[in-house]
Amino acid sequence: MKNIVILISGRGSNMQAIVNAGISGARVAAVIANRPDAAGLAWAAERGIATEVVDHKLYPSREAFDAALAATIDSHQPDLVVLAGFMRILTEGFTRRYEGRMLNIHPSLLPAFPGLHTHQRALEMGCKVAGCTVHFVTAELDHGPIVAQGVVTLQDDDTADSIAARVLTLEHQLYPAAVRRFVAGELALHDGKVKCGDNPAASLMSPAP
Ligand code: GRF
Fold first, then answer.
1. How high is the pLDDT of residue 208?
2. Quick check: 91 and 137 in contact, CB under 8 A?
3. Do 6 and 90 share a structural domain?
4. 2, 129, 206, 207: which has the highest count of C-beta atoms within 10 A?
5. Which of 98, 118, 148 lies at the terminal end of a domain, its last residue?
6. CATH number, residue 54
């Protein structure tokens, strides 16, 4: 049985999607938040999942916070660390510690639009498609090797909010699917490149018609 530790900062809808997917061969060992008021904590606790808070405001530096976070994560013996709306910039040492076993989901088609306000930026650039990306986490923010992408077509009357809603629905399918493939041993990082099993189509998703 593989242990998954999920890190959140807020509502945790991607965390919920992963828990609800009931991935065989894995258990969500803990949900950890950097904010005591992260709404997803209560949802996880109600389901009997261990929850922890490592409040970044209580640490004098990023290094001190990341050390405390790593100690908390490691106490749950993770095979996979899943960032699900975890809104902290991580130190290089932290990302190296979990190299090849830490995933993130980002609401854009990376490498376009790392960082915040991705859907507004896509609209302003006149993009015809938007989407989300699951990637292995490296030291560079929102830049690690890409595992899977979900694509939505943009319409003339789209707003940042309407795009966010469509993309989020896709995130809730794409992220559990990627975690399932990792747990099944079909997804790994070798020499900085993603190796996946014999189903490359599983790396691209668009909404059901
Ligand atoms: C998602 O859009 C995710 O792609 C981004 O932050 C948001 C988190 O939403 N990294 P939730 O907390 O999973 O509902």
1. 67
2. no
3. yes
4. 2
5. 98
6. 3.40.50.170
| 122 & 207 share domain | yes
Q: Is 132 in the pocket of ligand 1 (CB under 6 A)?
A: yes
pLDDT in tens, 107-160: 999 999 999 999 999 999 999 999 999 999 999 999 999 999 999 999 999 999
Domain boundary among 79, 98, 117: 98
CB-CB neighbours of 153 under 10 Å: 12
- Least Cα distance to 95 among 124, 75, 66 occurs for 66
* CA distance linking residue 202 with residue 154, whole number of Å: 22
Q: Which domain does 57 fall in, by range?
A: 1-98
Number of domains the chain contains = 2
**84 C-alpha vs ligand 1 centroid, how far in Å?**
6
Q: Please give the model's pTM, rounded to 2 decimal places.
A: 0.96
Task: Reply yes or no on whether 106 is catalytic.
Answer: yes
Token digits of residue 197: 């099993």
Position in ligand 1 atom list of the atom nearest CA 167: 2
